[in-house]
């Protein structure tokens, strides 16, 4: 089955100036992907006639579907409809159905229409109207030389409703699209290059219609295995078979699949094992507790946290011995062990986690440079501590430290 390609063209000076974040493109891409349509390119242009026309020409040369958002308002800076009419060498005509909808919408809201509002019902003569149930700017569907041009409002909630309820079903009917299926494998605490080396032979043996992508983020690498084919059932079985071959190669680093996040996986394990956890944080400043409590239902297993940034708090609240702090300093194995054991005892939890280090970008010394982090885990049977040697970047160090401890907690709970 022939692949169907789309380009997304977002229109608006506010996007180029950085005054708003373009969330529309991401939403549209996700919706098209589910429909078996592959987005080949995304382009943003300003409210400029020549820029829009050049964008349309460029998109038409490479895509089967050109999806446009923005520039459909009633004011003079919104020029998308007029430019589309010029591009297709046609005129704008008044659509009585749209005009009636706009009049009813204003009446229902107790507002008075003016002449500018009436221009919302002007539509290129070659366009089919896509109804906008929640706004005044209609969408437009234009077929031209085998290509489909779709224009939607830039207001996200208007665009999303139109895309989900009207555009996607219409595209599915218009095009015969192949199945596109993704399988996600989530890994943690392994560099992208090391991961690639471990799975190189498996990756090289993948069939041509299955593609692997590496998507790194702080301390994690998400693997996306994508298949494209005519039969969704056969394709899904192929992908699952390949994932089954991959798992033994990197099982120690896989924390989840599909929509899993490390904090959700850990939360599920804590509930399953009927364990509770508390945290004593210095260099991570409460970020570990934040991730643990970002999961709905975390009150079942997360008891509390102390951000023990100063030595005084470490001593007063966690019973860290002044002698330990004097002899070894706050960033040390004895201190972080005492913190983990102290928080577990204080809050009466099954598990205590602790962090202490030099997050940066300053505060380091020759003996303990920036990026020197100690972490600890304590339960009723054992205490474990480990030194991490990380980066010069503060937020990266906080994230990497948190990832390490969450994954270590996952591994202990999985034993």
Automatic annotation (TrEMBL):
Q: Give the protein name, as stated in the record.
A: CinA-like protein
CDD domains annotated for this entry?
cinA
**Its domain of life?**
Bacteria
UniProt xrefs under PANTHER family = NICOTINAMIDE-NUCLEOTIDE AMIDOHYDROLASE PNCC (PTHR13939), NMN AMIDOHYDROLASE-LIKE PROTEIN YFAY (PTHR13939:SF0)
Give the record's family classification. Answer: Belongs to the CinA family.
Domain MoaB/Mog intervals: 7-174
Q: Which InterPro entries match?
A: CinA (IPR050101), CinA-like_C (IPR036653), CinA_C (IPR008136), CinA_KH (IPR041424), Competence-induced_CinA (IPR008135), MoaB/Mog-like_dom_sf (IPR036425), MoaB/Mog_dom (IPR001453)
Please name the source species: Thermoflexibacter ruber
SUPFAM superfamilies hit by this protein: CinA-like, Molybdenum cofactor biosynthesis proteins
């Amino acid at each position: 089955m022939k692949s169907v390609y789309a380009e997304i063209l977002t229109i608006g000076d506010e996007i180029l100036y950085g005054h708003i974040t373009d969330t529309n493109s991401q939403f549209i891409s996700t919706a098209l992907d589910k429909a078996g349509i592959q987005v080949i390119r995304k382009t943003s242009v300003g409210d400029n006639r020549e820029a829009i026309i050049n964008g349309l020409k460029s998109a038409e040369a490479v895509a089967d579907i050109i999806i446009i958002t923005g520039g459909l308002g009633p004011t003079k800076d919104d020029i998308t409809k007029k430019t589309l009419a010029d591009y297709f060498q046609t005129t704008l005509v008044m659509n009585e159905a749209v005009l009636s909808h706009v009049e009813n919408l204003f009446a229902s809201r107790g507002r008075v229409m003016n002449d500018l509002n009436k221009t919302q019902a002007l539509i290129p003569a070659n366009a089919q109207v896509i109804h906008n149930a929640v706004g005044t700017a209609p969408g437009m569907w234009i077929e031209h030389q085998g290509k489909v041009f779709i224009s939607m409002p830039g207001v996200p909630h208007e665009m999303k409703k139109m895309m989900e309820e009207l555009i996607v079903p219409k595209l599915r009917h218009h095009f015969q699209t192949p199945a596109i299926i993704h399988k996600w494998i989530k890994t943690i605490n392994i560099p992208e290059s090391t991961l690639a080396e471990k799975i190189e032979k498996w990756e090289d043996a993948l069939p041509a219609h299955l593609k692997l992508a590496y998507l790194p983020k702080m301390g994690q690498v998400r693997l996306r295995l994508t298949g494209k084919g005519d039969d969704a059932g056969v394709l899904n079985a192929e992908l699952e078979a390949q994932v089954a071959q991959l798992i033994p190669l990197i099982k120690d680093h896989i924390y989840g699949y599909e929509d899993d996040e490390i904090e959700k996986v850990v939360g599920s394990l804590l509930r399953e094992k009927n364990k509770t956890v508390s945290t004593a944080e210095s260099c991570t400043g409460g970020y570990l507790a934040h991730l643990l409590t970002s999961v709905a239902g975390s009150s079942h297993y997360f008891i509390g946290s102390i951000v023990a940034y100063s030595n005084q708090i470490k001593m007063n609240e966690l019973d860290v011995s002044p002698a330990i702090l004097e002899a070894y300093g706050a960033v040390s194995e004895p201190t972080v062990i005492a913190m983990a054991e102290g928080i577990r005892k204080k809050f009466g939890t099954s598990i205590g986690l602790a962090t202490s280090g030099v997050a940066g970008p300053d505060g380091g010394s020759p003996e303990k440079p920036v990026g020197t982090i100690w972490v600890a885990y304590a339960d009723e049977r054992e205490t474990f501590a480990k030194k991490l040697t990380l980066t010069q970047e503060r937020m990266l160090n906080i994230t990497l430290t948190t990832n390490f401890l969450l994954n270590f907690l996952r591994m202990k709970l999985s034993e």
